[in-house]
Amino acid sequence: MRTGEKCLVIGSGVSGIGSTGLLEHMGAEVVLYDSDDRLDVNALRAKLPAGSRARCVTGALPEEIIKNTETVVLSPGVPTDIPLVNELRERGAKIIGEIELGFQEEKGRVAAITGTNGKTTTTTLVGEIMRAHFGEEKVFVVGNIGNPYTSECLKTASDTVTVGEISSFQLETVMDFHPRVSAILNITPDHLNRHHTMEAYAAAKENVALNQSGDDICVLNYDNAYTRDFGGRCPARTVFFSSAAELENGYYLRGDKIVKSENGKARELMDIHRDMKLVGMCNVENVMAAIAIAEGMGVPIETVLRVIRGFHAVEHRIEFVASKGGVDYYNDSKGTNPDAAIQGIKAMDRPTVLIGGGYDKGSEFDEWIDSFDGKVQYLVLIGQTREKIAECAKRHGFDESRIYFADTYEECLKRCSELARSGDAVLLSPACASWGMFPNYEVRGELFKSYVRGL
Length: 455
Description:
- With 455 residues, this protein is α/β, with parallel strands linked by helices.
- The chain is 34% helix and 22% strand.
- α6 (119-134) runs parallel beside α11, α6 (119-134) crosses α12 and α11 packs antiparallel against α12 (301-309).
């Protein structure tokens, strides 16, 4: 980035604000733009650091800005193929994302984690392991987890470690991004309204290893067809983990034990019941991935296992909330797609009242319904997808009399508390995004927890 370069930041959320601040630090001339003409320009400016000279624009973007822009930084929520971005690209502007911009100022080593499900838990756990070994002040956890890379990259040094949760949206726009250790936890259908095809979605995920070489490590899920296939094409040295197969080399589950195998020589590392506070096979896989990533970054296994033993579930991911009247309530609001929600069902060991539905991302729900396996006693549905899910459930033999619709979240939660009996569980695991009813899955989960605690 050269001094005076004309840059356009599209999107005024935390990523956009972080990008604007970093670009100004780098000497660029910046326009911060949001297409929402309901936003107040002065309110937008108030989000920027004191002394910012960035120009703020909402609504229609003036032609003179389009004509003069040299570099465009897209926030993750901005698709790369909308007409404005296409026009800027055709005019010769360089299109990058916030992750790529942050990496330009990175001075330390990076571990980057992507995948359809498990990213936040794995990233949080890896961050805790890194802090335990390298020190609190030497570790930065950034990306899709909610902390912009551009807000932390200037603090990095040759002895620091950055752990990034990187979404497919963020990986669409990487160019030079180069983690020392990358991981693709799994790839299952999601965000097809954005990526359009599974091939495009998988290709975006694979970009996490785009610039890696044989000196780097890529941690992959052996049990997932997409990631196992990528292992044969990955430019980095691949390390597999598996909950279903014994591996000659890698990490796998044997009975109740996580095992590390090197050239067929196995070493038991931990007992998943005694040494883990997390529940569900999805979290066993997350823990195996975290061990592989941490060891790849040079952390001693004794430190890794010590941190895992004390690690609790990430908020909104199969999170136990409370027991009320003999009913256990679980918040899995982060189950925003069918595959993630399947893991929530698998973690239940009792009759369950399930809350499902939300924004339609183009997902199919057949496998999710099949995973109910007799555990789901009642299905309470909300949001845009409720009819679609109900029809799918009926096709798969789910009793129509046990399906309920709710027009409001409060009505939904009240219905669940009425249906549940002592010994049951109530699980919020919607298999859908929250948009339309809530600004994000965090708000959805917090409202669920607030309601439960008030029972």
